[in-house]
């Protein structure tokens, strides 16, 4: 068929509904705002790993759906989450990305979260413990006891990640939400404490769902030279996409032949506990968090959508905490040679999704993004994407292939 004219180009593809999406779901500002409300404020979000706040009084700050969040470890070793917002006049209480409350700050007492604006103080449970000139100003009308922080649901689970949900009544527990997709690696990541050894972040011009997609589908391994030479054998093509409730997907494992890539070596020696040598599992959680266990290193991508065409992705690499310095060094090399900012894989994915972002700005004509490959759920089947977008449609009550219409189940089942 020759190249198409405008009418042909805009016509629906010869696929079933559910096998493509309309690009306005990546670029429409109204849809983006709705996603923050209907999805990101309602679901469990991993915000960091517990090893990043390993001591009592350690904290980290972040945002979920633009809401400032602080997670802090108490003297009882429990990690708790709060809105990072002062109940007095709404100032952000802690402005550092991470640190410790153990020592006093110029405008803060030791072991307290202190709002520097008017010096109100809070303990690690979020109780207000000091209001400056309390009696003088409020007499008996307002007191410490009823001005605590906004507590958020928070759990440490699945290898020690810290999960937060802005909704007091989430649709289901964290275990019900993410337990099953994690089962394939759970024994390995829960066997002993893990530790973050690598962190970097990227802010790129693309929609967060497109980053989810490149993590979830493997058809684009044609772009990854490393994956082609170390994979692309019968075992690789026998990997399956498995769909789970709530839009999650994982991809079954196979043995990666690292030796096939010049300068690389087997990861066997430092395999995660109870993990067969050189295996590679991938877990993609709705609405877009990703966990990859490749032999000796665990990678986690946490996404913070910043706009329809802008996302911050935080990349973490993890190993077992008990590593010797030599083991840790090797583990870092294994991780970074593939997934570090100058590794063999990550930048290629970033080029892919920013290329998509470049064609899908607000006001770009709607494009059809095809998810129609069927290969009995094997590795290059786009079933994971169909599964994900069907879930997205339900949460949003919008049809992914025509987002101005209400959701209806696709003609072809997602799985
Ligand atoms: S805004 Fe925090 S003490 Fe006033
Ligand atoms: Fe990729």
Structure description:
With 415 residues, the chain is an alpha+beta fold. The chain has helices at 6-10, 24-27, 29-40, 134-138, 174-189, 208-216, 225-230, 234-237, 325-339, 346-359, 383-396; strands spanning 20-22, 45-49, 58-64, 67-73, 79-83, 98-100, 113-114, 121-122, 128-130, 151-157, 161-165, 194-204, 241-243, 249-251, 280-285, 289-294, 297-307, 310-320, 368-370. It folds into 2 domains: 46-155, Rieske [2Fe-2S] iron-sulphur domain (Rieske Iron-sulfur Protein), CATH 2.102.10.10; 185-396, Alpha-Beta Complex (Naphthalene 1,2-dioxygenase Alpha Subunit, Chain A, domain 1). It is built from 11 helices and 19 strands. The strands form 4 sheets. The chain has a 7-stranded antiparallel sheet with strand order 2-11-10-5-4-3-6, with no helix packed on it. Strands 12-18-17-16-15-14-13 form a 7-stranded antiparallel sheet, with helices on both faces. The mean pLDDT is 96. The chain binds FE2/S2 (inorganic) cluster and fe (ii) ion. Residues 214, 220, 224, 349 line the site of fe (ii) ion (FE2).
The averaged pLDDT comes out at: 96
Classify the secondary structure makeup into a structural class: alpha+beta
Query: Secondary-structure element sequence?
Result: HEHHEEEEEEEEHEEHEHHHEEEEEEHHEH
Task: Tell me the helix content.
Answer: 25-40%
The gross shape turns out to be globular
| CATH homologous superfamily annotation of the largest domain | Naphthalene 1,2-dioxygenase Alpha Subunit, Chain A, domain 1
Number of strands: 19
Q: What is the class of the largest domain in the CATH system? A: Alpha Beta
The total count of helices amounts to: 11
Oligomer: single chain
Tally of distinct domains: 2
- Outline the biggest β-sheet: 7 strands, antiparallel
């Amino acid at each position: 068929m020759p190249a198409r004219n405008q009418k042909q180009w805009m016509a629906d593809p010869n696929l079933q509904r559910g096998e493509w999406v309309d690009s306005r779901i990546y670029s429409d500002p109204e849809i983006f705002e709705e996603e923050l409300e209907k999805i990101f404020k309602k679901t469990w979000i991993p915000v960091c790993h517990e090893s990043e706040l390993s001591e009592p009084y350690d904290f980290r700050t972040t945002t979920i759906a633009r809401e400032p969040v602080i997670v802090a470890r108490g003297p009882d070793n429990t990690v708790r989450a709060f809105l990072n917002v002062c109940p007095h006049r709404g100032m952000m209480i802690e402005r550092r990305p991470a640190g410790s409350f153990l020592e006093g700050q110029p405008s803060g007492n030791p072991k307290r979260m202190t709002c520097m604006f008017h010096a109100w103080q809070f303990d690690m449970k979020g109780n207000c413990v000091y209001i400056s000139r309390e009696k003088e100003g409020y007499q008996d009308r307002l007191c410490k006891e009823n001005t605590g922080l906004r507590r958020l649901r928070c759990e440490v689970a699945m290898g020690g990640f810290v999960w937060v949900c802005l909704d007091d009544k989430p649709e289901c527990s964290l275990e019900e939400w993410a337990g099953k997709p994690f089962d394939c690696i759970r024994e390995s990541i829960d066997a002993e404490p893990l530790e973050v050894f690598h962190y970097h972040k990227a802010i790129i011009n693309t929609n967060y769902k497109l980053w989810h997609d490149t993590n979830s589908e493997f058809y684009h391994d044609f772009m990854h030279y490393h994956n082609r030479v170390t994979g692309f054998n019968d075992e690789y093509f026998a990997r399956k996409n498995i769909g789970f409730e709530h839009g999650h997907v994982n991809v079954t494992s196979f043995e990666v032949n690292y030796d096939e890539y010049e300068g690389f070596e087997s990861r066997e020696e430092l395999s995660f506990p109870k993990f067969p040598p050189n295996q590679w599992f991938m877990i993609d959680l709705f609405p877009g968090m990703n966990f990859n266990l490749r032999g000796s290193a665990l990678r986690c991508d946490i996404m913070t959508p910043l706009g329809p065409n802008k996302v911050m992705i935080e990349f973490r690499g993890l190993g077992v905490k008990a590593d010797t310095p030599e083991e840790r060094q090797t583990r870092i090399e294994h991780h970074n040679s593939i997934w570090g900012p100058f590794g063999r894989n990550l930048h290629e994915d970033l080029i892919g999704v920013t290329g998509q972002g470049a064609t899908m700005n607000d006001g770009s004509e709607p494009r059809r993004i095809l998810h129609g490959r069927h290969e009995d759920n094997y590795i290059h089947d786009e079933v994971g994407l169909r599964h994900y977008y069907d879930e997205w449609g339900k949460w949003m009550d919008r049809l992914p292939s025509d987002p101005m219409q209400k959701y209806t189940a696709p003609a072809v089942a997602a799985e």
